From TrEMBL, chain A:
<protein>
    <submittedName>
        <fullName>LAMI_0D06480g1_1</fullName>
    </submittedName>
</protein>
<feature type="signal peptide">
    <location>
        <begin position="1"/>
        <end position="22"/>
    </location>
</feature>
<keyword id="KW-0256">Endoplasmic reticulum</keyword>
<keyword id="KW-0175">Coiled coil</keyword>
<dbReference type="InterPro" id="IPR028945">
    <property type="entry name" value="Get1"/>
</dbReference>
<keyword id="KW-0813">Transport</keyword>
<comment type="similarity">
    <text>Belongs to the WRB/GET1 family.</text>
</comment>
<dbReference type="GO" id="GO:0005789">
    <property type="term" value="C:endoplasmic reticulum membrane"/>
</dbReference>
<dbReference type="Pfam" id="PF04420">
    <property type="entry name" value="CHD5"/>
</dbReference>
Automatic annotation (TrEMBL), chain B:
<keyword id="KW-0067">ATP-binding</keyword>
<dbReference type="InterPro" id="IPR027417">
    <property type="entry name" value="P-loop_NTPase"/>
</dbReference>
<comment type="similarity">
    <text>Belongs to the arsA ATPase family.</text>
</comment>
<dbReference type="GO" id="GO:0071816">
    <property type="term" value="P:tail-anchored membrane protein insertion into ER membrane"/>
</dbReference>
<feature type="binding site">
    <location>
        <begin position="29"/>
        <end position="36"/>
    </location>
    <ligand>
        <name>ATP</name>
    </ligand>
</feature>
<dbReference type="GO" id="GO:0046872">
    <property type="term" value="F:metal ion binding"/>
</dbReference>
<dbReference type="GO" id="GO:0005524">
    <property type="term" value="F:ATP binding"/>
</dbReference>
<dbReference type="GO" id="GO:0043529">
    <property type="term" value="C:GET complex"/>
</dbReference>
<feature type="binding site">
    <location>
        <position position="284"/>
    </location>
    <ligand>
        <name>Zn(2+)</name>
    </ligand>
</feature>
Length: 214, 353
């Protein structure tokens, strides 16, 4: 159960990070570039206000006032350009840091977990829910699929070892994996479970996007 | 004058009597009276400081100095008839390019190779003569020649050079040249540093041109000019305009560009003013209407440029051509025009024959 909950949490956290990547600049600005981003926004508003005021003034009738507004707009444009350059540089640094954090705290642990504990059973489903030939894959991961041709040769051609439909035991696999394969339930290992959960969430997201025209 | 009186004089007396200014640029939109103003400034400076030598150069491809003074000037400086310390020069790009072409032919010798034949046909002048910006580049070269001559003590020495510039766009391009050249030479220096010997061999023939040396010399000269052009005690720009919207708009644009180049600009000459209120001899409805419009913009100028010398010059009854007329007209740059007291002068300008 803890493994089940942990995997669900990890998959949703990864999905959340992926969603947030779409709004990366806003997230980065909020976390790293707070002052620069808000200053830029403030300057943008001020410039817009000045521009509107300038548009409401007739250049021919109030040339001095129009020109003074024009000068202020020009100065603001220069400051905006400078702030944008600063913010772009800040965002670049922040993206680099964010990528490192992502790699260190998410990507690497998930990879390590998949390689180290990938074959640990997380949930069980009734045997026969999926074709029997798939149950070894569900129980032991993609390695089982890779080993299937070799097993076929060993069992059918050479006539030794368990059948194709039987459990394919990877070297070093835990004993309960073999026992579970012959019982009324079929275990699903961590790697397959995470893969399946991620695919389900992705598909659900696509359906929602299509239905809502996002 | 009280301590709190911060008003700026509405004349160019301080510039005319300045002993530090070496470069004076006079520019603005086309048709506002740049040539008349530049001639007037040059004349007043020459009259105010008779011990110094002044040179008036026209960098406008459509030269008018000869027409303004009523005598012919060319690419070599020549004294104005009637003035001992004022010379004029009109830079002619095609003549300057022909000189360069002839120099190249002479240096190439009588080798009879393809390049020599090409140059003798004036190909260099033809090729380069129509490049946009060539006028500005040649004017700039003239400036560099003067600086070099002054340092080496060669030829005629001029204490102040006044430029009658081309309309705004050309002038801005001219003033950008020091910065542009400086950046170009920096880049070229980087490349030449790596491929120097190969570049020298590219000159070929019997020349032994040290490209790096020439580039460094050019770069040093350009840096010197940049420093002088951005020194407010040595260089200033006088904007000329008329009291109309388009001219003012362009003047504002020019002033902002000049400020961005760190060039000193603190004088504006407003030409062609009618002063109809004070004109008892001529009192037509059209003039009053135009004067009303001009006054509107004059008030705006006074408000916008309160820390500038804003010189208001009258529209005269005749053309301001010839030395005598220019002398009479140019007095109002030194001591501002009084529409009541000086009104008769604008009708006194002699017709130039």
């Amino acid at each position: 159960m803890p493994a089940f909950v942990a995997t669900v949490v990890v998959v949703f956290v990864l999905k959340l990070v992926q969603w947030l990547s779409g709004y990366r600049d806003n997230v980065v600005d909020a976390l790293w570039g707070g002052f620069a981003a808000s200053k830029l926004k403030e300057l943008g508003h001020e410039r817009q206000k000045l521009y509107l005021e300038q548009q409401s003034v007739s250049a021919k009738d109030e040339y001095a006032r129009w020109t003074k507004l024009n000068r202020r707009v020009g100065q603001l444009d220069a400051r905006l350009s400078e702030m944008q350059t600063q913010l772009a540089a800040q965002r670049k640094r922040a993206h680099a840091q964010l990528s490192k954090l992502h790699t260190v705290f998410l990507t690497v642990p998930v990879l390590v977990a998949k390689f180290w504990k990938g074959k640990v059973p997380v949930v069980s489903i009734p045997a026969g829910m999926f074709p029997r030939v798939l149950e070894p894959v569900l129980g032991q991961g993609w390695a089982a699929a890779a080993l299937m041709p070799a097993k076929y040769v060993v069992t059918t051609v050479l006539g030794t070892g368990p059948t194709v439909a039987g459990p394919v035991v990877a070297p070093g696999a835990a004993a309960d994996t073999v026992n579970a394969a012959t019982s009324a339930t079929a275990p699903i290992c961590l790697a397959i479970w995470m893969w399946a959960l991620t695919r389900v969430v992705d598909t659900a997201e696509d359906v929602v996007r299509d239905l809502c025209n996002i | 004058m009280s301590d709190l009186d911060l008003s700026v004089e509405p004349n160019l007396h301080s510039l005319i009597t300045s002993s530090t200014h070496k470069w004076v640029f006079v520019g603005g939109k086309g048709g506002v009276g740049k040539t008349t103003s530049s001639c007037s400034i040059a004349i007043q400076m020459a009259l105010a400081q008779p011990q110094k030598q002044f040179l008036l150069i026209s960098t406008d491809p459509a030269h008018n100095l000869s027409d303004a003074f009523g005598e012919k000037f060319g690419k070599d400086a020549r004294k104005v008839t009637g003035m001992d310390n004022l010379s004029c020069m009109e830079i002619d790009p095609s003549a300057a390019l022909k000189d360069m072409n002839d120099m190249a032919v002479a240096q190439n010798g009588n080798g009879g190779d393809g390049l020599g034949d090409l140059l003798q046909g004036g190909a260099l002048a033809d090729l380069t003569g129509s490049i946009p910006g060539i006028d500005e580049a040649l004017s700039f070269m003239e400036v560099m020649k003067h600086i070099k001559r002054q340092e080496e003590g060669e030829g005629e020495k001029y204490d102040t050079v006044i430029f009658d510039t081309a309309p705004t766009g050309h002038t801005l391009r001219f003033l950008q040249l020091p910065q542009t050249l400086s950046q170009l030479l920096d880049k070229f220096g980087e490349i030449a540093g790596r491929f120097g010997p190969m570049l020298n061999s590219l000159t070929g023939g019997n020349q032994n041109v040290d490209i790096m040396g020439k580039m460094n010399e050019l770069k040093a000269n350009v840096e010197k000019i940049k420093q002088q052009f951005t020194n407010p005690d040595m260089t200033t720009f006088v904007c000329v305009c008329i009291s109309e919207f388009l001219s003012l708009y362009e003047t504002e644009r020019l002033i902002q560009e000049l400020i961005s180049y760190d060039m000193d600009v603190n004088s504006i000459v407003v030409n062609q003013l009618l002063f109809a209120d004070s004109d008892a001899e001529h009192n037509c409805r059209r003039c009053h209407s135009r004067w009303k419009m001009q006054k509107k913009y004059l008030d705006q100028i006074d408000e916008l440029y309160e820390d500038f010398h804003v010189v208001k010059m009258p529209l005269c009854a005749g053309e301001i051509r010839g030395l005598n007329n220019l002398k009479k007209f140019s007095k109002f740059l030194d001591k501002e025009y009084d529409p009541e007291a000086d009104n008769k002068v604008i009708y006194e300008l002699e017709e130039q024959k």
